[in-house]
Amino acid sequence: MTEKLPDLPQAYEPSPVPLDDPSPVPPDDLSPAAPRRRGRTAAVVVAVLLMAAVAWAVLSPGPGRKTAPTAATPVERASATTPSVQRLEALPASAERPRRVDTEGAPTSIYFANDIDEKVTVNRLDGDGQRIRYSELEPGQGYHQQTHAGHVWVIATADGAAVAVFRAVEAPGLAEIR
Q: All domains of the chain, ordered by start, with CATH?
């Protein structure tokens, strides 16, 4: 058993190819020592196509798969973003009656959700009981407003008629306009 094993062939080592080498490589040169730039491009293209196919398979609904839920309503979005939201009681329009509003409580917020079939404006009553216009809401639209506890908000139609009145509380509030 003192036989000598045959010599192993020399391992293949590709020659380094500088990335900024401007010399063209003939397309029919397939020798192992020739750089293969097109091979890298093809590999990248294949990888991108494979990732696109996987993304399509994952994101598209198939048999037995549930589809994505429909768009959330403004109320659902408000509840999802702030779980401790307190539903505010809609006071009658007569609660706006001209009066001095001087309550300035802790900072808070209100999410206004327009659930009626017409555009409304969101107004805050100032210290003299005058409306200050803040926003317009289309049907189905919502609006998040920073405010202070005790501030009074009047929701009005395009003609200025009050639809509802809300008073901010210390907890974040949800004002459903119905």
A: 74-177 (2.60.40.780)
